[in-house]
Amino acid sequence: MTRVWKWNRPVTVREVLEDLQQERSIAYTTVMTVLDNLHQKGWVRREAEGRAYRYEAVSTRAAYAAALMNDAWAQSDNPAAALVAFFGMMSEEQRHALSDAVRMVQGPETAEPATAGSPGGSTGSTGENPGAATEADGR
């Protein structure tokens, strides 16, 4: 899938094979089998081109990662605890990306009232919710 996502266009078994062979020795039939398996699982679609197929990703790498995270989270018997543990594993950069993502999903209309209702515009300054100031100030 990495190769298919990397090119962001329909690819042939031969193209993937030649790319992989720059790193290691691999058989054509191995690449063909893997792409066929990905097609059977619904991760790629394929279109005939002569005697070969061109394979194209069904979803983006980001959507695939999101689906994996959602599946893992859904299997937890305590989703809140699972999220807390997951957030605890994140780097500072990942936590900033998460804050940005939450703001994008909530939209500006959600962030505005929280900022407007804070006394003196100091949302989060009490230390109770240190991420709140960053989220509100970012709007």
Tell me the layout of helices and strands:
Elements: H1 2-7, E1 11-12, H2 13-20, H3 28-41, E2 44-49, E3 52-57, H4 61-74, H5 79-89, H6 92-106, H7 108-116, H8 130-137
Antiparallel strand pairs: 1-3, 2-3
Helix pairs in contact: 2-3
Explain what the structure shows:
- The chain is mainly alpha-helical and 139 residues long.
- The chain is built from eight helices and three strands, in the order H-E-H-H-E-E-H-H-H-H-H.
- It has helices at residues 2-7, 13-20, 28-41, 61-74, 79-89, 92-106, 108-116, 130-137, and strands at residues 11-12, 44-49, 52-57.
- A three-stranded antiparallel sheet has the order 1-3-2.
- A hairpin with a 2-residue loop joins strand 2 and strand 3 (52-57).
- Helix 2 crosses helix 3.
- The longest helix is centred in the last third of the chain and has 15 residues, at 92-106.
- The two termini are 37 Å apart.
- The model is unreliable at 113-139 (pLDDT under 50).
